[in-house]
Design brief:
Helices cover 38% and strands 19% of the residues. By secondary structure, it is of the alpha/beta class. The radius of gyration is 22 Å and the shape is globular. It comes from Acidipropionibacterium virtanenii.
Length: 164
């Protein structure tokens, strides 16, 4: 007959192995992208909402979009082989559109103190700048609410290229 300590370890070991398999299986699909935004944009079209706010986003005389955030988005789009469809509007309208799934990213000099967090997720700050009053301001971009692969992918790109 086995000692009591051996009988307890076997079920505990089995339970730990099952728990490990369960966790590994769940993490294989993380980050969840329930709306398929990254899949849709990759090799397709990245839908970008733009609020004009120099120097972050400006309108060119020919109607195009430029500025430091527009350059970042263009670079990101190249990494996922996406064309960009720009949608110019006010922050409030763009916040509604990204909440409704009509946009993938919102840019326009958004900061970490954006009032639109009930309508869009904010990326981690990609750059800190000094405001005219001397305070530090953390720059972010908007993405659809909820954990999604596009947000994670964009944040990785911004971590590598955003501080420039």
């Amino acid at each position: 007959m086995r000692p009591a300590s051996m009988r307890i370890r076997r079920p505990t070991g089995l339970l730990m192995a099952l728990l490990l398999c369960l966790v590994a299986g769940c993490s294989a699909s993380w980050p969840r992208d329930t709306s398929g935004s990254l899949d849709a944009a990759t090799g397709g079209t990245l839908r970008v909402g733009v609020s004009v706010n120099p120097p972050w986003v400006t309108r060119a005389p020919n109607g195009g979009v430029s500025g430091s955030e527009a350059r970042l988005v263009r670079g990101y789009a190249r990494t996922i082989d996406a064309d960009i469809r720009w949608r110019v509007g006010s922050e409030s309208v763009l916040a509604e559109e990204i909440r409704d799934g009509e946009l993938d990213v919102v840019i326009g000099g958004l900061t970490s103190k954006s009032p639109w967090t009930d309508k869009m997720a904010l990326t981690r700050p990609y750059r800190t700048v000094t405001a005219p009053d001397g305070s530090s301001v953390k720059m972010v971009m908007g993405a659809p609410l909820g954990e999604n692969a596009l947000l994670v992918s964009l944040e990785k790109y911004l971590a590598e290229h955003g501080a420039r």
